[in-house]
Amino acid sequence: MRILLIAIDGLGDRPVKRGKTPLQLAKTSNLDKLAKSGINGISYPVGIGLVPGSDTGHLSLLGYDPEQFYVGRGVLEALGSGVKLYEGDLAFRCNLATVDSKFNVTDRRAGRPDERTVAELAKAIANVSTKEFTFLFSHTKGHRGVLIVRSKFANPMVSDIDSHNTGPTAWAKPLDQSDDARKTADALNDWLKKVHQILKSHPINKDRAKKKLPEANFILTRGASMLVEGQPHKGAVYSGPYGKNVRIQKFSERYGMGAACVAGGALYKGVARYLGMEIIDVKGATANVDTDLNAKVSASISALKNNDFVFLHIKGTDVAGHDGDWQKKMKFIERIDKAIAPLLKLKDTIIVVTADHSTSCALKAHSADPVPIVIWAPEGMVRVDGVNKFDEISAPHGGLGRIKHKNVMPILLGILGKAPMYGT
Question: Which of 285, 298, 330, 396 has a 20 to 30 Å separation from 137 between CA atoms?
Fold first, then answer.
């Protein structure tokens, strides 16, 4: 028996039309079939009343409590983008953004420029160093990037530049009293100012200004984290503001299952690589609404032949939610529903569909709202509960009730008959 876990990023939402969410409004015959023949519930990704990040939401969903295993976004993004990490490397997740002449952030994503534009701008700032610090910038997907900082003084205890809001730039500050944290924060701020000068004078941004498009003239960093010793998955230890000296246990060792990941975005590949999963690259997987869903589903089916567990990540719903476009989100959900049709023919496979978090179109941001979850399994393996539709309002009436994401893997082990006994 194998498991396919589908995480539809930012799927949950709040009412947008006629008191219904984008998921309720979407035509989802295949998702509804899974709900009718499965067991349903509503899940809090990291905790009641807490707003999950994509990183913490996925760690929790895969059975790794963020309170114990979360180290920070930077290392995860670097691992997923294929950037080589060495002992002592400090990593940040980055956004290309737009600031005005007074360093007020006016667009956190610089109008979402295309891949070619961002790649060209990234070349201009790939290696801009300051005194005693080397800064290496790499483009990943869309407006996103990874920054690696190398120095004997590098310290992960620095604050995020990206406050997730527009307004005055939140310059880096040390998060402890160490000289290294202060030096790292100062060096990062110096680098950001140098990069701004390079980007704002770049021909691409001059052309964008003429066309009245947001200039990609600044970098927002967040999620400082560091590889402390060793290489990833060979006894590596990670450190950052959220977790210190975090030693990860591979997914295969934790659950006794070989696992693979199908994803387009660097973060999701990074979470999977952090947990020791095989990464399956798919042509056309863009981490946006233009991603090739059929190719990702096909790759997942193939991966199930050689793995006990496959994690399929789909990003576009989150992108639409951040853009505040509920119609785009609804239509993308309908595309997902069509693409998963071949999965309903799988045998000897448990299928789980849920999300890492809710992304509210009204807020244009993640919210603390729980997300629907359905677990479908071959006949007789789960208690079919009578829920007929897969959405945020129907799901809580199902047999799973209200759970947390960290309960999902134990529940799946229970369905497989592999749950440990508590007592005698």
Answer: 285
Is residue 230 pLDDT above 70, yes or no?
no
pLDDT tens for each residue of 371-410: 999 999 999 999 999 999 999 999 999 999 999 999 999 9
Q: Look at the alpha carbons of 314, 320, 326, 331 in this order and tell me if their dihedral is positive or negative.
A: negative
- CB atoms under 10 Å from CB of 236, counted, come to 18
Percent of the chain whose pLDDT exceeds 70:
99
Question: What's the one-letter identity of residue 56?
Answer: T
Domains of the chain: 2-64+248-416 (3.40.720.10), 78-226 (no CATH)
Q: 228 forms bridges with which residues in the sheet?
A: none
CA gyration radius for the chain? Answer: 21
- Hey, how many other C-beta atoms are within 10 angstroms of the C-beta on 384? 18
Please state whether beta strands 134-139 and 144-150 pair in parallel, antiparallel, or not at all (unpaired): antiparallel
CA–CA separation, 374 vs 387, rounded Å?
A: 10
Instruction: State the Cα–Cα distance between residues 394 and 24, nearest whole angstrom.
Output: 9
pLDDT of 247 reads 82
Q: How far apart are the first and last CA of the chain?
A: 27
Question: Alpha helix locations (H) across 201-265?
Answer: 203-210, 251-255
**d(Cα 158, Cα 172) in Å, to the nearest integer?**
6
Query: How far, CA to CA in Å, does 49 sit from each of 62, 119, 393?
Result: 20, 38, 18
The arithmetic mean of pLDDT across residues 136-147, rounded, is 93
Q: What whole-number distance in Å separates Cα of residue 24 and Cα of residue 376?
A: 20
Q: Are 96 and 204 in contact (CB under 8 A)?
A: no
pLDDT value at 102 more than 80: yes
Q: How many residues does the chain have?
A: 424
Beta strand spans in 27-133 (E): 39-44, 90-99, 104-107
CA gap 408, 96 in Å, rounded:
35
Contact 409, 403 (CB under 8 A): no
Q: 0.85 exceeded by the pTM?
A: yes
